[in-house]
Amino acid sequence: MATKPxxxxxxxxxxxxxxxxxxxxxxxxxxxxxxxxLDEHFERPMGAASRWWLDKSLRALDAALQDRGSRLILRxxxxxxxxxxxxxxxxxxxxxxxxxxxPEAFEHDAEIAHTLKADGVECHGFNGALLCRxxxxxxxxxxPYKVFTPFLRALLATAEAPAHTTGPRQxxxxxxxxxxxxxxxxxxxxxxxxxxxFDWTPGxxxxxxxxxxxxxxxLKTYAKDRDFPDxxxxxxxxxxxxxxxxxxxxxxxDRAQQAAKDGKVSSAESDKFVAEIGWREFxxxxxxxxxYIAERAFRPEYDAMPWRKDDAxxxxxxxxxxxxxxxxxxxxxxxxxxxxxNRVRMVxxxxxxxxxxxxxxxxxxWFWDTLVDADRASxxxxxxxxxxxxxxxxxxxxxxxxxTQGEKFDPDGGYVRRWVPELxxxxxxxxxxxxxxPAEVLRDAGxxxxxxxxxxxxxxxxxxxxxxxxxxxxxxxxxDHSDRD
Length: 485
Hints:
Belongs to the DNA photolyase family. It holds the Pfam family DNA_photolyase. By secondary structure, the protein is mainly α. Strands 3-2-1-4-5 form a 5-stranded parallel beta sheet, with helices on both faces. It is globular and about 85 Å long. The protein has 21 helices and 5 strands. Helix 10 runs antiparallel to helix 11 (267-289), helix 13 packs across helix 14 and helix 15 packs antiparallel against helix 16.
C-alpha cells in the first residue's frame, strides 16, 4: 500500500528556505502535496496590485518546487472544501501550515483545524511570518503593548531567532493530483495592463537579491538616506517580499546584524533597520489583539472626527493632481510602480487626512488596492498613525507642510521631476510650489497653471486651519503645535 502523503498548505509563506511548515512536513519522510488555495471569501479580498504580485510569486514558487522534484498544486474556492477534496483524493491525513495572525484568518485557521480533526486529520500550525507569535510579548501587567519603543525592547529581549534552514533537496509529490491553471485565475491585469511600470522580481530569489543589494550599500547610510525619495538604493524594498513571506523577517535581521558585527556598517544603521522590521511586527500584534482597528479608530474619540465627503478632491489625490508636486509625485509613483517611498507616504497621507479632511479609511482602501506591499496590519496602523487615532500615533496636530517637506527631502527636485515631468523645467526655488513662480518663469518652463499642471486644490494655511478646527471638536484642544517643517 502506498504511503499516504501529507499536505503542505502555502499561504503568505511563499518560500522554501526558513519555512517551518515545510521542514516539519519533510521530517515525516512521506510524500508532500504543496498546495496554494485562492480563497477570498473569509477575509478582505486582495487589491489589484497584490493580485499581480501573487501571480508572479506563485510561478516562482512552482519553479523552485520543480527544481526539487515537486510542483505547486493550485486550487480555488473555500479553503476547507478544497482541503477536504485533496484529502479525499489522496488519502492525506496530516496538514502542515504556517499560521496567519490577522483576526479573521486566525479564527478561520482554528475552525478548519477543528473540522479536520473531527474527520481524523491532524493539522499542525507554525509561525513563519513574524518574529514571534502575538501574545508572546506582553507588558508587566500581561497586556499587549500599546507603545512601540517598549514593545521593541521587549521583543528583541524575548524573541529567539530560529536556525536558518534551506529545506529538503528533494520533495516527492504524487503526479496524479490535479491542479488549476494559474493563467485561468487571471491575477495579472487584463485590458488594460497597467503594470508595465512594475519594476519588481516577485519570489524568493527576488527577495534574496533585494536583501543582498541593500546590505552592502543602502544599509551603510540607512538612518539618514531613507528619508530622501530620490536616493536610489537607500531603501531595502523588502516590504512586499516580507508580506508574501518570500523571505523570513529573521533572515533580514540576521543579515543586517551580521554586517554590523563584521564592521561593514555601524550598529546604529543596523539597529534602525531592525527597528523598521520591529514596527511591522508591532502593527501585526496590534491588529491581532485589537481587531476593531481595521475598521475603527484605536482611540475611539477619533471616530467622531467630522470628515468631509469630497469626491472631486479624493479623485485628484488618487490621480496625483492636487497641485502639490511632492504629493502628486508620490501618488503617481504609486500608480506606476505599485509602491511609494515611505517619507512620501506620510506626506500624502497627511495631506488627505488633514489638508482635505477626508477619512483615513479612504486612503487606506486606495493603498490596499494599489500597493504591492499592501499588508492589512501595516496599512491600517500606518494610516491611523498619521491620523492621530492609532496606538503610539503621531499627534493629529502634526500637519506636514508638503512644500517644505519637498524642499527638505527632495532638495534637488529629482523625485518630483521624475514623476511630475511637466514641471521638470522649473527652477528648484519654485519647483515645490509652482504657483509662486513669476509669470516669466512659468512661461519659460512652458507651464500654464490650471492647464499643464493644476493649481492647488486647497491652500496650505486654509487646509491646516480647517484640520485644527476639526481636532477641537474631537478633543477640545486649543493648542497649535502643527508641524511646519
